[in-house]
Amino acid sequence: MPNLILILGDQLTTNISALEDADRKQDRIVMAEVHDEATYTNHHKKKIVLLFSAMRHFAQRVEADGWQVHYQAYHPDNHEQSLEAVVARQLRETGADRVITTECGEWRLHEQMSQWHERLDVPVEIRPDTRFIASKQEFADWAEGRKQLRMEFFYREMRRKTGLMMTSGGKPEGGQWNFDADNRRKWTGKPPAPAPFRVEPDELTREVIDLVEEHFADHFGTTEDFHFAVTPEDAERALDHFIDFALPCFGDFQDAISDDEDWLFHSILSPYINCGLLDPLAVCEAAARAWHAGRAPINAVEGFVRQILGWREFVRGIYWMNMPGYAKENRLGNTRALPWFYWTGDTKMRCMHKAIDATRRNAYAHHIQRLMVTGNFALLAGVRPEEICDWYLAVYADAYDWVELPNVLGMVMHADGGYLGSKPYAASGKYIQRMSDHCSNCHYKVNKSTEADACPFNALYWHFIDRHRDDFASNPRMGMMYRNWDRQKPERREALLRRGDDLLIDLEQL
Ligand SMILES: Cc1cc2nc3c(=O)[nH]c(=O)nc-3n(C[C@H](O)[C@H](O)[C@H](O)COP(=O)(O)OP(=O)(O)OC[C@H]3O[C@@H](n4cnc5c(N)ncnc54)[C@H](O)[C@@H]3O)c2cc1C
Ligand code: SF4
Description:
mainly alpha; 510 residues; Serine Threonine Protein Phosphatase 5, Tetratricopeptide repeat; Rossmann fold; binds iron/sulfur cluster; UV-DNA_repair_photolyase; globular; binds flavin-adenine dinucleotide; DNA Cyclobutane Dipyrimidine Photolyase, subunit A, domain 3
């Protein structure tokens, strides 16, 4: 009897574990564009185009390679609008007596799929996702018994495990594990940032763009200027483009923000790595080869490898070890609604406007925009973690629950009480001024704090510090902030708190 092999939209590689030992003559691959998956959040239109188009290209490819494929294209009138319904129907139609799949990337679907064997009345084999460098169990074993989980130590394990950027004697190349201190330069236009890699949409992608315009018109963002890769070959070319043109400066300007450059020296590879078009380890190996060949400096390559081998693996481990409770965490007790300008970009704060507008156009913003601009503002303003998490899940082409949630709830909102990060990434306008050229173009004045035209980040920062004294005063990494705050004159502190209160009452007007 044949097996049904379900391939999800973020599993677009023939190296996926569900296809191991499969028989292309007998077994049937099932793929489906279903309403439930396309609408569980207000996904950016470009994200839907990317995934539907990449799925269609993948299905065509495997079919041409001799696989039997059942592919359900999206239509609002399709009878089956959930993955379970599609699989149930395929079981009835083919007489298959087993379902094989690879574990998915979010708790919601994971829970559903783990009940399928009862609901569908056939064995359902859910295989580990071997694209990750550490399995869930390996992460849990590493975490066991540790008082604090810190990415840096996990990252070193991953370096040892893969041998990436390691000497034959088992030491880190360059004599250090981490070159982060070299990676904090402001970018002033030189060297020029490379244009991002672009692929012109082919006919299949254009069809999907029309479909998204017709059926997902009310979703966030735009399909205009869609230029993402949708095949492994083009994603590979995007990787080459990054290594040739951006990697050499990736480290230096990793934390920089620009008023007129959306992409700077970032790789823009996360959408491809996360959906299976690129393999994360192969991406790291390509960067390491560039260092060995003298084509990129060590601070750039180590910094890049750390993001994938370290942060990416670490947040995934945190997610699976702590779900479903993790999603409900709100240790700072935030209650404020997400300001509407997160959806429109309609705010006088230049840095926020620029980050949100780039997000709307590109389904992309780089890490520092996500962390220190839109994230920092939500932290300082005390936005409910659930609302800001939903926003991040919706607006980025690379957003999946396993990676978005720990980054937002843990890293940005500190809502897990410091489980993921040792201190909140709270910062005043000074940080944004130091790392960007936004402030000179802003309605607000970054060097003012209490006046009507003062940068909102300034008073909100001190308000945050003051209102969370009980949460942070004993944190050794925050002690200096509290000493600075306590040293200020009482009238000054009062004025800052008053301004903070006023801002919080009317965030929408900012
Ligand atoms: C609030 C917030 C939300 C985020 N949401 C997501 C998300 O939904 N999906 C996502 O893939 N990344 C997310 N990140 C991490 C990071 O911002 C993106 O991976 C990165 O901006 C993607 O762009 P890039 O490919 O140009 O990355 P680069 O800057 O070129 O980095 C290289 C690669 O490292 C990996 N990486 C870097 N930082 C992280 C990180 N913190 N966690 C996991 N992987 C990382 C990505 O695979 C990325 O492609 C988030 C970060 C923050 C602060
Ligand atoms: S002045 Fe404040 S609000 Fe304006 S760009 Fe600078 S940091 Fe952002």
